[in-house]
Design brief:
By secondary structure, the chain is α/β, with parallel strands linked by helices. 30% of the residues lie in helices and 28% in strands. α3 crosses α4. The chain binds inosinic acid.
Length: 225
C-alpha cells in the first residue's frame, strides 16, 4: 500500500514537474509557465506554523471590503484636515499599506515601534516610541493598528503621543478583541470585532511567522489564548 501511494506520488510529480512545463513551452504565448504550475500552490484553508494549526477565519476579499469602508469613513470624517497616520510595526504593515491605497485625501504616513525598557521610574519600566520623525503638534493623528487585544499597547501610545499635543488623536484598528480589552481608549474605527482567540496572518505573527498571508487565520481548537 505504501509503495503504491509512493508510486502515485512519483507519477503525479513527474507530470507536474516535467510534462506541464514542457507543454507550456509548446504553447508559450497561450499558457504562461506560472499558470501551469499554479496547482502546486498549497491549499490556503489551513495554515501550519510550527506546532500550531490555524484555520481560515477572514478571507482576503472580506478584509479588502472592510478596509475600503474604513477608508471611506476616515475620508469623510477628516475632510479638509491635515492628517498624519502613525502605523505600528511590525503587525500593521499590511493593513496600513492597503488602507493608504484606499484613502485618497492628502495625508502623511509614518511607522513606529513601541518599546519598553528597564528604567528608573516607579514601575521599573520606561515606554518609548521609536521612529517618530514627523512633527504631529496641531495635526490630526490616526494610529493604525493591526489588532487591539488587551489595549495595553494602545494605552502606552496614547500617553506618549498626547505629550506632542496633536490637534486630535484617534485609533483605527483592523481587529479588536472586546472580551480581552482592558484599556480606556476604545478604538474609534474598528474593522472586525473578533472572539478572544489567537489569530495570525495579514501582518500578524505567531513566533514571528505567518505574517505573509492575504487571509487571516484563527488558532484551531482552543477557545482562548
Ligand atoms: P495588546 O494586548 O492590545 O497590547 O496587543 C499587543 C500586541 O500583541 C498587538 O499589537 C499584536 O502585535 C499582539 N497580539 C495580540 N493579539 C494577537 C493575536 O491574536 N495574534 C497575533 N498577535 C497578537
Amino acid at each position: 500500500m505504501y509503495g503504491r501511494e509512493c508510486g502515485c506520488f512519483r507519477s503525479d510529480f513527474t507530470i507536474t514537474i516535467f510534462l506541464l512545463p514542457a507543454i507550456s513551452l509548446l504553447f508559450k504565448p497561450i499558457i504562461p509557465l506560472k499558470i501551469v504550475l499554479l496547482p502546486l500552490k498549497l491549499d490556503d484553508k489551513v495554515l501550519q506554523i510550527n506546532d500550531k494549526t490555524f484555520e481560515i477565519f477572514i478571507r482576503k476579499e472580506e478584509i479588502q471590503a472592510e478596509i475600503a469602508s474604513l477608508a471611506a469613513r476616515l475620508e469623510a470624517d477628516y475632510a479638509g484636515k491635515e492628517v498624519v497616520f502613525i502605523a505600528v510595526l511590525n503587525g500593521a504593515f499590511m493593513f496600513a499599506a492597503d488602507l493608504m491605497k484606499q484613502f485618497r485625501s492628502p495625508c502623511e504616513i509614518t511607522f513606529v515601534k513601541v518599546s519598553s525598557y528597564k528604567g528608573m521610574n516607579s514601575s521599573g519600566r520606561v515606554d518609548e516610541v521609536i521612529g517618530l520623525n514627523t512633527e504631529i503638534k496641531d495635526k490630526h493623528v490616526i494610529i493604525v493598528e493591526d489588532i487591539v487585544d488587551t489595549g495595553i499597547t494602545m494605552e502606552k501610545l496614547f500617553t506618549l503621543l498626547s505629550v506632542e499635543k496633536p490637534a486630535s488623536l484617534e485609533i483605527v484598528t483592523l481587529l479588536h478583541k472586546p472580551e480581552a480589552f482592558k484599556g480606556t481608549h476604545t478604538p474609534t474605527y474598528i474593522g472586525f470585532s473578533i472572539p478572544n482567540k489567537f489569530v495570525v496572518g495579514y501582518g500578524l505573527d505567531y513566533d514571528e511567522l505567518g505574517r505573509n498571508t492575504e487571509h487571516i487565520y484563527q488558532l484551531k481548537g482552543e477557545t482562548t489564548h
